[in-house]
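Quick one: structure for this chain?
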Amino acid sequence: MTATTAPDPVAGFPAELKPARTDVRTALRTFFFILWRDVFVTGRELGPFLAQVLVEPFFILFVFGKVLGELGYTSGGFQDVLLPGVVALNSFLVSLQNTALPLVIDFSWTKEIEDRLLAPIPTSLVAVEKLVFGTLRGIIASLVMIPVGFLLLDDVSWPMDRFPSTLAVLLLGALAGSTVGLTIGTLAPPRHISVIFAVTLTPLMFTGCTQFPWHGLADIRWFQILCALNPLTYVSEGIRALLLPPGGPGSIPLWVDLPALGGAILLFGLIGIKGFHRRAQD
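Got it. Here's what it folds into:
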């Protein structure tokens, strides 16, 4: 009598009938390998990346916060309003741009996205990886602006006991920007992407309450309503709600900011992932 060994409970099944646990483990490993590759490339290009994301907010802080202040056109309290807005602007717009533009390039010219779609990972997770990577870039860009603001501006403060809370708001803001970028990157025709960026980024920047408090627009009601439709407004106002001292300019409370950002993430995330599936099938 010859000895027999127990059959492999996984190898004997066709691929589609294997336990889902193995597929989930493979998908998650693949997801993190792809994300790590993108993070590694960013680390090698950290200098150009920081130069790209710091020039515009640096000059906003310098001109509006420093130059106009020394000329007497703004009061000292304006700097406390401006710095949270510019940090929020970086978290949102950098995430948007670093999600939308690579998608347009990958889908239209380089076709690099095809390699990722052939990996053992669901299509939706490929889209989520793009969101996570864009969010990480936005967080880095926003955090770098905090010490830059302290170097440029004289009368600003950022209480360290509020740092975890502000980081959470920045994370939501960066994720919201990434979902908007995913929507733009998958729905915009590649040949028109420069035009679409031109007509979307500037309005997003100037209706996001980055340079003024939302409650200060009470006398310009139509513009206040327009700003309320911009997810960036709730990032700027959420950070101000945490940082501005009592008695300062009023801010939209966090119990409004957080659900508004959550709704924007859900709405644009679903639209963007659906658009990603459509582009992946083309």
